[in-house]
Amino acid sequence: MDGGRGRELSGRVSDFASSPQGAGLILLTGATGYVGGRLLRTLEADGKRIRCLARRPEYLRARVGATTEVVQGDVLDPDSLRGALRDIHTAYYLVHSMAAGSSYADDDRRGATAFATAAREAGVQRIVYLGGLGDGDRLSPHLESRQEVGRILRDSGVPTVEFRASIVIGSGSLSFEVLRALVEKLPVMVTPRWVHTRTQPIGIEDLIGYLREALDHPAGQSAIYEIGGPDQVSYGDLMREYARLRELRRVMIPVPVLTPRLSGLWLALVSPVYARVGRELIGGLRNETVVRNTRALEAFRVRPRGVKQALTRALANEDSAFAATRWSDALSAHRPAPTWGGLKFGSRLVDSRVAWVALTPEQTFRPIARIGGKAGWYYGNRLWRLRGALDWLAGGPGMRRGRRDPEALVPG
Questions:
Q1: pTM of the entire structure?
Q2: What share of the chain in percent tops pLDDT 90?
Q3: Integer Cα distance of 213 and 211 in angstroms
Q4: Residue span of the structural domain in which 208 resides
Q5: Which of left, alpha, beta for 220 (phi over 0: left; psi -120 to 50: alpha)?
Q6: Is the same domain home to 308 and 371?
Q7: pLDDT at res. 202
């Protein structure tokens, strides 16, 4: 997409027509993901009427408040969108298909088209979308896909507020978890060229602030807002600042050539990302992702924190925040839903054993809730670790992703 056109649209603040602000039922897509999950908690705390669209509702229902509705649906299934968008005033489009493999751009295109069409037919008053910063004609496939989705939503005729952001700093976000893994595990790092590309990170609280304030923005005309913190830094600068805050000594050795494919495999060795996801992440880091138009500071009350403050908050809040939502939830929810529930397995062999213990139910269940992660498994521990090693060899995260919470057992 042409960067000049994006800057022109982002300046149309005064063109918005007046309308009731923040009214009506909200549809939230991507609530099982990192940003969507954080936004869900904020909207619920504000007392908003929310309907969540989820491919696997059972994965989400345990996390939502009593007044939040969860419906089954998929942006790639137009029939499911009609009911989900009924009576909706504002729809948040916070989904992407990066975990789908090489076809993710086509899936994103089809999903955005189906959603835009259904939203227009349902009379939705506003769509809020989170895309990616970057302009010019040589965007990475990932960034190009993100911006194409925004264009499809705007072209639907439904007023669309598109926020474009760079790296999101917050415990549980993809960028932060990769950053943490690299700095925590590697005292000496080889740093390819993409590590030195300029970015303009934004803290998760500030990003959620923008998304929340979009509800109160006058409806009418579509607009693009480029958002970011006050600091323009490289990914290498972020790693150095993280190391400083953690009081770690780290050495970075620049290397002239390391392809996205090799870099993706490198990330898969030491971080909790799949190799293919790492390749797309690195592909995006080859482009400068900085704010060119600061109109968002005039249109919204959010005043983003700097890198140091955002990293400090992420480190301070990481235990509770990481347990609530993280980027990998979106990848898990993206996979095909299991169909075991309605099937009969025929003859079964059941091994039932009983042991009496002088403990409360809570004390008895605690070791079960801690299974996996650092606690390991109570049977076949070596086999589980071998399974993790095989997953890692196949390009998966292996044993590095860890548990959501070391003490609590939750669905998903």
A1: 0.73
A2: 42
A3: 6
A4: 3-232+270-330
A5: left
A6: no
A7: 97
